[in-house]
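Take a sample.
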Amino acid sequence: MQYRSWLDTWLSRDHSGSYQAHGPQDGDVITGCATSYTPEEVQIFTRSLRRHHDGPAVLIVNEDAPIIEYLRDHSIDAFIVPRSKRSDVHIVTRRFAYLLSMLELKRDWGRVFTCDVRDVMFQASPFSLPVEHELEVYQEREIGTLAEHSASKKWTRRAYGADAFARIKDQPALCGGAMLGTRAALARLVRAMLNLNLIPRSAVASAFGADQAALNLAVHDGLVEAKVVANHERVSTIGAHLDALTITRDDRLVRPDGFMPPVIHQFDRDPDLTAAVERQTGLPFVTQLDQKHSPLAIWYDRRRRSLQLRLPELR
């Protein structure tokens, strides 16, 4: 599906009937996208969330009875979205359109923390540290710039061209997997990201990495004002730098100086960290990420998307 037509159609619809309230409605909000996930795949996220956060929480999910019932049992709201097809805009982009619809719908929300779900664990509430800015975004890793981050460099150049990338190449690489802000500030950022992705060809805007490219350009090119927070502060994104955190006797993940980041992202990049998360939460880490499509289907999809990126097309 063409990105522009999909986005226009989605944002023009009334989604008030898609929101199911299961828990508290007052206070700071935590949200994430869990489409196609099973209850077992979200249990580390949801159980650690509820251990440290008693305020509103909502997951974006498909209309599957088991996951909706699971969220109800844990007092977590559900925002129901259609099940995707293989030809649809990639979920890394669609999730921000879903988030924007929620932010426009829930205009009484105050501060909102949104993040990935499958590979996130809470050691404390993300709101346990002072929030001093309307909008926070987080570095993907603690060293290097966009020019030295091969994936972000590739995605940004592909989407917006070499000149746009040159303007921001000396800035830190930002992670699309976590953001915090007031409802209004977060909505401005998400809308800017979605609109930026109207610039590249639809196959690029619809592909993996488009969200990261849009976030880096929106913030570093000055389209949206945001505080860039260093890695391993409020959010710790593990990535490839596995020595940034150590494991304590009680299985907390802390920096060498003893500081414990409230949110651990990408813990599954290392088996020792994953094991510590499992011991801390008392839950197994379950993922079906590599099992949902056959190897042949994955190969075909990659070839199809690669071809799309190389062909001229109408929007």
In short: The longest strand covers residues 174-182.
